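ingest -> validate -> predict -> emit
validate: passed (alphabet ok, no gaps, 418 aa)
predict: started
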Amino acid sequence: MKISQRTSGGSWSYRFQLRNQEYSKGGFPTEASARDAGDRRKARLEDTTNVARNQLLEIIDRATTSQVITAEQIEQVQAILLPTTVATSPLGKILDTYDTATHLDASGTTRTANINAILNILRTVTGFPNDQLRHTDARTLLTSANARAWFDHHATRANTLNQSQARAIKETANSTFNSAAGILTPKARQTYADAGLQLPDTTKFLDAYQANRFRLPRKDYSPPSEEIIQATLDAWATLDDRNLFLAIGYSLAYGLRKGEIIKAKWDWHTTRRGFEILDAAADVKNSTGTLTVKALDPYHTTLITTARNKHWRQATGPILTGSATETGTDVWRRLSEFLKHHGWTTRKKAHALRAYAGSAVAMRYGLPAARDFLRHATSKITEENYSHFVDQFSPEDPTELPWSWSRTTDRPRFAAVA
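emit:
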C-alpha cells in the first residue's frame, strides 16, 4: 500500500496492486484516512463471502473517483440490485455440467479449452481468481459490460505494441471469446436446464462480442514455394510417427479439419460408384451431421501403402490413438513443428494442409468440386479463403496436374484390412 500527498498541505491518496490490477483513490484529508480507506478497499476486493455487495461497492468507488457513472457501471449495478424471479446458478456449476455432459458434441479437449477461455475472460476483467469466479452468480459475470471490458483491455494492450504484435493480441482476444461462447450454445443451454440449473439471459453478453470484436483486415498470405511443398511431402512419406503421419495424410487425402481427424474412425472408409470415400455421421463444422468426401490421390495412395506396410490400419476404432492430450494437443503441436521445420510460415499449420489439398482439387476439377471436398456452405467461402495456391500454381491445362480422385479399380480397397 502506497500513501502519498501530491503537494504540501494538499489531499492524500492511496495506491496498491492486487491480481495484476492497480487500484487508487485520492482526496483524503489526512494520511490516516487515506490508509484506512485503502485497507478497507483491499480487504473488500479480497473477500469472497459477499461478492455481489463488494462488486457494488467497488463500482461506487470507481464512479466517485472519476465523478462519472458510465453506462457499463449502471448495468453492473442493475445486475446486482434488480430483483429476479429466480436466482441464477453459480458459474462453477454451469461449467462443471458442461464439462461432464455426455451428449454434447464438443470433444473433451474442446470443452476444456472453452472453459479455460471463459475463466480467462472473466478473470481478466474482474480480477477474481478462478475459485471466486466459480462461486459467483453467473448473472453478475455474463454481462455486456464484462464482454466490452475484455476487448477494451486488449485494445489498450495493442496500443503499446507494433503492428504485428497488436494484430496478434487482437486475434487472440477474438478467438478466446469465440471459444468461450461454446459454453452458451443452444444445446449447452438446454443441457443446463435439464440439469435443473438456471442460466441468465446471455444475449447481451454474446451481442457485445459481435459489436466489439476486432475487425482485422485480411492477411496477405504467401504460400510456400513448390520446393518447400515437395520437400514436405517427401518427408511426410517417410515418417515413423504414426499419429503425425495419419494427421497429415487425412488433411491431404480427404481435406479433413483438425476436429474431424480427432473423431475419425477406420470404419468410415468405404466405396461409392468406384471411388474411395469417407462416409460417416460426424460433428462437422457446417452442422449437417454428415461427412462424405472423396479421396484425393496421390496422397490417398501414400496413406494406404504406408498404413498397411507399417500395420497401422485397423478394422475399427479411432484413427489417431493415445490419450486425449496426445490426440487433441500433442500431435498437432508436432505437426506445426514439422511444417515450420520445412519452411511453412502460416499461423494455422494444420489448416494450411487442408487449404493446399482443397486448392489442388480446385485447380484440377474446379471450384464447385473444391467446395464439396472442403464441405463449405458456399463457393464464395472456398474462393475467398483457399485461392492462395490456385493463384500461384494453377497451370493452363488442368489435366497436366498430378492430382486425381482415388478409384477402387486402380488399387485394392482401403476399406478392407490387409
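The radius of gyration is 27 Å.
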